[in-house]
Every structure is written in structure tokens, then in C-alpha cells.
Design goal:
With about 325 residues, this protein is of the alpha/beta class. The chain folds into 2 domains: about 40 residues, no CATH class; about 290 residues, Alpha-Beta Barrel (TIM Barrel), CATH 3.20.20. The chain is about 35% helix and about 20% strand. The protein is built from 11 helices and 11 strands. Strands 1-2-3-4-7-8-9-10-11 form a 9-stranded mixed beta sheet, sandwiched between helices. Helix 4 packs across helix 5. About 40% of the residues are buried. Keywords: 4Fe-4S, Cytoplasm, Iron, Iron-sulfur, Metal-binding, Methyltransferase, S-adenosyl-L-methionine, Transferase.
């Protein structure tokens, strides 16, 4: 525990020799068994946006693979991430977007990471090192698994990392401040409700029908929409927690009145335990190999939101909560 506390309080850039008052044998055995460094990663790039609200960190791990995490700073009173609020002293709260894999095999057509394919899984320790490094820059209050990779395809390591995050003896984060987002791996959704019942769950849905979803999210072929939504219902039954429904809006693809009504129809039986998070697609995500999409018209976003609300479906206001977090990731992760 002494080694752990030192690593958390003083960072993981030092060596075992930097930790005082350990038994003499430890200074001999630990370097022989585990190497001299306290960590397995290093920051190779760090960039902060001009308004000071967002910092992107690029970490390199001991195997040479690299993954990104993003710190997003908010005004705790207003819930907004703006240049004006960045200057408000004492009101800051910070969310860290962590990666669970290097690359991703899900192939979502609008996602830059999806064009990479899966390069490798991160260990629980490598996921946690993103938090340790970020804490040295800004005290972190919230964690969202919305970075590189599909968290539920690296299930054991993600669960191990989350358990460390919410352990009072280690990072001590509130489970309600940790969100795991998935494009939809049905068996793991149910298992996560049993293993992490107090942690937030977000489903990246992006389409109201199976036919459209397969075009946007190719992995949907393996997990049809009816089975996916049944898993969402089961997750709620087990955990008792509401589910965030993430919906990236793509112009003239899934942002029309027809899609809004189809989504309302899909979610009406679940209106007591789902909240929709509308996320306008950002052109800065476009990369070679990705599908050419356009950002939705603001009027379409508003109409879409109104339609859902008229049907009694809860919708997060666009400038707040996960919508803001995800949009800031989209705007900054590839543009800093």
C-alpha cells in the first residue's frame, strides 16, 4: 500500500528508490521482479486547447503502443465548458475520457478510431495509468469510457480498472461518477449489471431500426436491435440504474423526423429508465477510410429533440452532461 500511495500522490515517473521507508529487501526484490520504474507508461504528447478547458494526453506504454485520453474541465455551477467559465476560480470539475483499447474492431462508420481496426487491448493498469497521469495535471472527478476502443470487448481489464477507481482505499471515486459506454455487446451488458451495478451505463445506439443501425454500426449484425434492447432492459432490472442512450446525429442519415418518431417508438416502453443524449456529428472526426458524413442542421437537432420530448422521452440538453463531454472529445481529440 505504501508503494501504491506514493505512486498516486507523487506520480509514476520515478523509481522504487524514490519511495522512503520501505523494507531494505523491497528495494532489492521489486526492481528484479518488476523493473525499476513505478509505471509502465509515459506522456509523449500533451496539448491543451486555447480556452484551457480541454487537455489531450498521448501515452506510450511499455510495449510501444499509444493511446489517447482527454481531460475536460467544467464549471460546476453552470455545467458548461466555456472560455468564460474557465476563469471562474473554485468551480472547476474535471472529467477524464479514457481509452480501453488501442484501435477498435467495431468499425463504426462515423468514428475515426473505427478505421484503425483493433491493434491491442490495454491492461487494467494501463487504463489506470491514464487516470494517474491526468490527476497530476488536474484533479479528476468523473471518468467516461468513451475514448479509443470498445470497453466490453476488453471486459476483464475494464472491470478491474473500474473496481480500482471506485475502491475507497485506492482512487475513491464515486461509482455514480464513472460511465462505461458500449456500442452493444449483449452478453457483457448483462454481466456488467451484475459486476458493476452502481456504475453508469451508456449505449451508443445511433439508429432507431436494425436496418439503419447495421449501415452505421456494422457490428450490429452480430447483436440485433431487439436483443440489444432486451439487454438494456435486463441491465436496468438488475442494477436499478437508468441507461444513457447515445445518438450521434448524421445529416440526412439518422436526423430526420421519421427517425425521431422511430426512436420514440423504440424507447416509449422504456421511458422510465432511459435518457437520450443527442450528439451532433463533428466533421473534424473525418479521416481517410471513414465514411463522408455531414454535421446535422441545428434546426433538425431541435426538431428531433422536441419530437422525443413530446413523446415523453427524456433528452439531455445539448450543452450539458454526457452530450457536452462527448462533443468536446469529438472537437478536440484529433484537432489539438
Amino acid at each position: 500500500m505504501t508503494i501504491w500511495k506514493h505512486s498516486i500522490l507523487h506520480g509514476i515517473q520515478g523509481t522504487i528508490a524514490d519511495i522512503p521507508e520501505l523494507p531494505k529487501k523491497v528495494y532489492e526484490v521489486v526492481p528484479q521482479e518488476f523493473g525499476d520504474s513505478l509505471g509502465t507508461s509515459k506522456i509523449v504528447e500533451q496539448n491543451t486547447s486555447s480556452d484551457g478547458t480541454t487537455t489531450k494526453i498521448l501515452l506510450e506504454f511499455q510495449d510501444g503502443l499509444r493511446a489517447e485520453s482527454v481531460i475536460m474541465r467544467y464549471d460546476s455551477a453552470l455545467g458548461r465548458n466555456t472560455e468564460a467559465n474557465a476563469s471562474r476560480a473554485g468551480n472547476k470539475r474535471a472529467t477524464l475520457c479514457v481509452s480501453s483499447q488501442v484501435g477498435c474492431q467495431m468499425g463504426c462508420t462515423f468514428c475515426a478510431t473505427g478505421t484503425m481496426g483493433l491493434i491491442g487491448d490495454l491492461t487494467a493498469g494501463e487504463i489506470l495509468e491514464q487516470l494517474v497521469m491526468a490527476n497530476k495535471i488536474t484533479p479528476i472527478r468523473n471518468i467516461v469510457f468513451m475514448g479509443m476502443g470498445e470497453p466490453l470487448n476488453n471486459y476483464a481489464e475494464v472491470v478491474g480498472a473500474v473496481n480500482a477507481m471506485i475502491d475507497p482505499r485506492r482512487f475513491g471515486l464515486s461509482p455514480a461518477h464513472v460511465t462505461v459506454s458500449t456500442v452493444g455487446v449483449v452478453p457483457r451488458i448483462i454481466q456488467m449489471a451484475e459486476d458493476l451495478p452502481a456504475v453508469n451505463f451508456a449505449l451508443s445506439l445511433h439508429a432507431p431500426t436494425q436496418e439503419l443501425r447495421v449501415k452505421i454500426v456494422p457490428s450490429a449484425k452480430a447483436f440485433p436491435l431487439d436483443k440489444l434492447m432486451a439487454a438494456v432492459d435486463r441491465h436496468h432490472e438488475i442494477s436499478g440504474r437508468a441507461v444513457f442512450i447515445e445518438y450521434v446525429m448524421l445529416s440526412e442519415v439518422n436526423d430526420g423526423e421519421e427517425q425521431a418518431r422511430q426512436l420514440a417508438e423504440l424507447l416509449t416502453p422504456r421511458k422510465g429508465h432511459v435518457t437520450v443524449n443527442l450528439i451532433p456529428w463533428n466533421p473534424m472526426l473525418a479521416k481517410d477510410g471513414a465514411e463522408p458524413f455531414d454535421a446535422p442542421n441545428p434546426d433538425n437537432i431541435q426538431r428531433f429533440q422536441i419530437t422525443l420530448k413530446e413523446c415523453g422521452i427524456p433528452v439531455l440538453p445539448p450543452p450539458r452532461a454526457l452530450s457536452l463531454a462527448h462533443r468536446r472529445i469529438c472537437q478536440h481529440i484529433d484537432s489539438l
